[in-house]
TrEMBL record:
Coiled coil: none annotated. It comes from Heterosigma akashiwo (Chromophytic alga). Residues 95-302 form the NAD(P)-binding domain. It comes from the Eukaryota. The keyword Signal applies. Residues 1-21 form the signal peptide. InterPro entries: NAD(P)-bd_dom, NAD(P)-bd_dom_sf. Keywords: Signal. The keyword Signal applies. This is NAD(P)-binding domain-containing protein.
Length: 364
């Protein structure tokens, strides 16, 4: 009991002061807390920590320690429920070598969430400057960032990284010449990942899918499906994920399917510029960096559990049959046009919590 009180006091000091350090455990692991308020549309406290031990640790031991420390950090949400952004453990990013996967890694680091960045080689080519700017340390692999090899096509590699204690998994992988076909990656690979998450009791699986994926008669579906039937296999993967979680019947586990519009390399516009929708009837354009932030925020938000939603820049929204040409020509949508094509399910907010609030979850 005395130990618990002392540890609670240490956590309180970490919240009240910009940085705080103490040593715990028989190995003398050092835990450093740093935080800062971020002006990103929500009052969010950034929490970073690192651990160092006297002796070498294997990967599973490192995951255990990161997970247990992250769970302790979860107490910060009790101390400051409106501002804490603490992960109960590390988050695995599958496909961290891809453009959207990299942005997911940078987003996790910016938010002080420990990240295991995976790729087929085990060494995703991240931008060192971007990692440092996001708070991941001066080197590519630092306090909050670790690397691991994982191939969604090979089930045995997944069980090495998707283990008990993981806070969540972001599936940012997709078909590529070297990585596998749409059937192998977006369908069969996603199914393997979902099964591994359920077996390891990982609280949340976030899937980065695609807008229009459930509307085979739409122009955007027909065009994109020309590339290896990718839309067909993406929606098959989505449907199988839902079925697996429904069959598992574990209320502690959940998924989130994010369906972004046309992806751009533009800087993130932030929560206030974005719009969520449900029903897969509208889409638009959106920066990969914004998609990544949505994936990370949704992973740790209860309101996004077991939901499927579309996301795009609010001023680019179009019905599916018009969005392709609009995206190519980089058109904007007027307020009047947006109102005329409203689905009634649009969601906009100035904070991430507000953006996810009210999303309709799937019914099992």
């Amino acid at each position: 009991m005395a130990c618990t009180k002392v540890f609670g006091l240490m956590l309180l000091l970490a919240v009240l002061h910009e940085s705080f350090c103490f040593t715990v455990g028989p190995t003398g692991a050092t835990v450093n807390f740093k935080h800062s308020l971020k002006n990103d549309g929500a009052s969010t406290r950034k929490i970073g920590y690192q651990m160092a031990a006297d002796g070498p640790m294997d990967r599973r031991e490192a995951l255990r320690r990161v997970g247990s420390t992250g769970a302790s950090l979860g107490l910060l949400s009790i101390l400051s429920p409106q501002s804490a952004f603490a992960s109960p453990g590390p988050v695995v990013v599958l496909g961290a070598g891809g453009k959207t996967g990299k942005e997911c890694v940078y987003s996790l680091l910016r938010n002080g969430v420990p990240c295991i960045a995976t790729s087929r080689s085990g060494a995703p080519q991240l931008d060192a400057a971007a990692v440092a700017a996001a708070g991941g340390g001066k080197k590519k692999e630092g306090a909050l960032l670790s690397f691991a090899a994982a191939n969604v096509v090979q089930e045995t590699t997944l069980t090495e990284v998707i283990t008990p204690g993981i806070a969540g998994v972001i599936f940012a992988a997709s078909a590529s010449k070297k990585g596998g076909t749409a059937k192998e990656v977006d369908y069969e690979g996603l199914v393997k990942v979902a099964k591994a998450c359920i077996a390891a009791e990982v609280p949340r699986l976030v899937v980065v899918s695609s807008g229009g994926v459930s509307k085979p008669d739409s122009a955007v579906y027909k065009f994109l499906n020309l590339f290896g039937e990718i839309m067909k296999y993406k929606v098959m993967g989505e449907d199988e994920v839902k079925a697996l979680y429904a069959a598992a019947g574990n209320p502690a586990l959940g998924y989130t399917v994010v369906r972004p519009g046309g992806l751009t390399e533009e800087p993130a516009k932030g929560v206030a510029a974005l719009e969520l929708n449900q029903g897969d009837t509208k889409s638009g354009r959106i920066a990969r960096a914004d998609v990544a932030e949505i994936a990370v925020r949704a992973l740790l938000d209860p309101a996004a559990k077991n939901t499927v939603f579309e996301c795009y820049d609010a001023d680019t929204s179009k019905p599916l049959n018009a969005v392709g040409a609009s995206n190519i020509m980089k058109k904007k949508t007027s307020t009047e046009e947006a109102a005329a094509t409203s689905t009634g399910l649009e969601r906009r907010a100035d904070s991430w919590g507000g953006l996810f609030k009210g999303l309709k979850p799937d019914k099992f």
